[in-house]
């Protein structure tokens, strides 16, 4: 490799970009190994680490892009933007005298202008509803926290609900804080929502699993050709070792999510509800390179306490496309849909050779990729139509929400001073739906009455949830949307009946 690089550098007829050549060579080599050994340049490393480290440096606003304009949903509490008086509903139209509205600038370019080192200053031009002239603010950038928890609330009088979106540096701390708050409100049982959670730090997964397991119970172990077996045990210091526990997973729950779920299932600590998880069980070791770039090299595999390998099958070095990507591996979820796995538990079959037994109740569980739930919940396709897909993909539902909020924020907050009142009394009116349909027409989305009526309950739920999020926060969004989430509703039914005990005792998958 070094000899080839030396020859090209010193003998090749034209001048070449050596760094680019080396990068491409590394990428091609890693593509011969497995789907998760990857190379990231210095800029990619920084972006990749921000959500897991738990903070970034910027102005501190939640925002959406609406018609080429940055629309502030909420300023971060006690963050730099809130401190200078920027409000929900403001539109940021210029950064340091450079227009960012109406100029077709990418979201990434806008974010790069708003973010910057702590204590650096940025000048923002704001358009505010009801104010004729633009407003000017000087914001001093600061560290902005990124939270792992999307929602935490009492979903029923004795049942708490916590949703985690990733496993980062602050996940265990956030979870423990929310857990104690819910316990003060009388929580006895818990629904832990890991749907769509793509993973993160191993230590965060271990710390979370520790909340549920007894001392010296194995959480996960790793093993590889040149990596000795490493075992990770619960300390027994968790705050929810008793009480019913349901874990929600789906086909996008991966890695750290699967470690937690597998440990809970293998120790018969709780019931897993949903669909088979993604199946990402390869351990990557980060290798930092001198220029700030990084190789993440697979060195071992994750195994659950019962000895199940979490990783789904792949063919090492298999190249099925020009860029060397693992096409069949990446299309696994499509294959699951086509094979009927997403809609029928009867379509899922595991050979007896992959059979394992749980640690306490000796229930049958299977290896072979991902965590198979104890209670299967199919994808609900009844309300999804092409019309709904189009209005969602083109941002029509989101834009309808933004426009409604912009015109009615003050009156809504005055009328619904508490979320509970909003949840009970607010309904999506025909005027809002008419506005949405007209917006869809402008986006050249063909209206289909039958499909519209079929998707209407879903559309109304999404609109109401998004309005709640913009008036309050993500917890309120999930308090609305969970009312139509099949897995959440099934979990509540299991907890309120004898099914929970029956699933654990019988070992049968339902």
What's a concise summary of this model?
The protein has 510 residues and is an alpha+beta fold. The protein folds into 4 domains: 1-30, no CATH class; 55-145, PDZ domain (Pdz3 Domain); 149-288 and 300-376, 2-enoyl-CoA Hydratase, Chain A, domain 1 (Alpha-Beta Complex); 386-487, no CATH class.
How would you explain this protein's 3D organization?
The chain is α+β, with helices and mostly antiparallel strands. It folds into four domains: about 1-30, no CATH class; about 55-145, PDZ domain (Pdz3 Domain); about 150-290 and about 300-375, 2-enoyl-CoA Hydratase, Chain A, domain 1 (Alpha-Beta Complex); about 385-485, no CATH class. About 35% of the residues lie in helices and about 20% in strands. It contains 18 helices and 21 strands. Strands 3, 4, 5, 6, 7 and 8 form a six-stranded antiparallel β-sheet that branches. It has a six-stranded mixed β-sheet with strand order 10-11-12-15-16-21, with helices on both faces. Strand 3 and strand 4 form a beta hairpin. Helix 12 (about 395-415) packs across helix 15 (about 450-470) and helix 15 (about 450-470) packs antiparallel against helix 16 (about 475-480). The termini are far apart. The model has no long low-confidence stretch (mean pLDDT about 90).
What's the helix and strand layout?
Elements: H1 2-11, H2 18-30, E1 38-40, H3 42-53, E2 55-58, E3 61-66, E4 69-75, H4 80-84, E5 91-95, E6 98-99, H5 107-114, E7 121-127, E8 135-140, E9 142-145, E10 149-156, E11 159-164, H6 171-184, E12 189-193, H7 202-210, E13 218-223, E14 230-233, E15 245-249, H8 256-266, E16 271-274, E17 282-288, E18 294-303, H9 327-330, H10 332-338, E19 355-357, E20 364-366, E21 375-376, H11 386-393, H12 396-415, H13 419-425, H14 430-442, H15 449-471, H16 474-481, H17 486-495, H18 499-506
Parallel strand pairs: 11-12, 12-15, 15-16, 16-21
Antiparallel strand pairs: 1-18, 2-9, 3-4, 4-5, 5-6, 5-7, 7-8, 10-11, 13-14, 13-18, 17-18, 19-20
Helix pairs in contact: 7-8, 12-14, 12-15, 15-16
């Amino acid at each position: 490799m070094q000899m080839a690089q030396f020859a090209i550098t010193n003998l090749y007829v034209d001048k070449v970009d050596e760094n680019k050549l080396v990068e491409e060579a590394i990428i091609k080599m890693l593509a011969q190994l497995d789907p998760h050994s990857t190379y990231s340049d210095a800029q990619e490393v920084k972006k990749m680490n921000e959500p897991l480290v738990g903070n970034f440096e910027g102005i501190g606003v939640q925002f959406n892009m609406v018609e080429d304009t940055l629309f502030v949903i909420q300023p971060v509490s006690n963050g730099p933007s809130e401190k200078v008086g920027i409000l929900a509903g403001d539109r940021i139209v210029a950064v340091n005298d450079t227009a960012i509205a109406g100029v077709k600038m990418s979201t990434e370019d806008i974010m790069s202008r708003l973010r910057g080192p702590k204590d650096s200053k940025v000048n923002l031009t704001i358009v505010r509803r009801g104010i004729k002239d633009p407003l000017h603010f000087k914001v001093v950038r600061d560290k902005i926290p990124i939270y792992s928890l999307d929602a935490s609330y009492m979903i029923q009088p004795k049942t708490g609900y916590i949703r985690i979106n990733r496993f980062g540096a602050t996940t265990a701390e956030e979870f423990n804080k929310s857990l104690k708050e819910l316990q003060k409100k009388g929580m006895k049982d818990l629904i832990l929502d890991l749907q769509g959670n793509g993973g993160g730090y191993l230590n965060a997964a271990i710390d979370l699993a520790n909340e549920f397991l007894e001392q010296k119970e194995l959480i996960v172990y790793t093993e590889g050709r040149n990596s000795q077996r490493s075992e990770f045990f619960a300390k027994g210091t968790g705050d929810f070792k008793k009480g019913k526990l349901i874990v929600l997973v789906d086909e996008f729950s991966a890695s750290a999510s699967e470690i937690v779920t597998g440990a809970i299932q293998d120790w018969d600590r709780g019931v897993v509800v949903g669909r088979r998880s993604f199946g990402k069980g390869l351990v990557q070791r980060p290798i930092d390179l001198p220029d700030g770039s990084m190789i993440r090299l697979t060195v071992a595999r994750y195994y659950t306490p019962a000895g199940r390998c979490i990783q789904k099958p792949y063919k090492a070095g298999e190249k099925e496309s020009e860029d060397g990507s693992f096409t069949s591996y990446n299309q696994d979820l499509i294959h699951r849909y086509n094979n009927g796995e997403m809609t029928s538990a009867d379509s899922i079959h595991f050979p007896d050779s992959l059979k394992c037994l749980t640690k306490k109740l000796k229930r049958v569980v299977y290896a072979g990729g991902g965590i198979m739930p104890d209670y299967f919940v199919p994808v609900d396709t009844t309300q999804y139509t092409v019309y709904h897909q189009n209005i969602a993909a083109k941002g029509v539902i989101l834009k309808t929400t933004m426009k409604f909020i912009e015109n009615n924020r003050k009156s809504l907050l005055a009328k619904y001073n508490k979320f509970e009142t909003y949840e009970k009394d607010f309904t999506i009116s025909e005027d809002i739906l008419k506005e949405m349909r007209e917006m869809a027409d402008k986006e050249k989305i063909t209206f289909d009455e039958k499909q519209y009526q079929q998707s209407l309950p879903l559309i109304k739920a999404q609109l109401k949830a998004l309005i709640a999020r913009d008036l309050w926060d993500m917890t309120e969004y999930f308090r609305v949307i969970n009312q139509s989430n099949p897995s959440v509703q099934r979990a509540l039914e299991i907890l309120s009946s004898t099914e929970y005990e029956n699933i654990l005792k019988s070992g049968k998958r339902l």
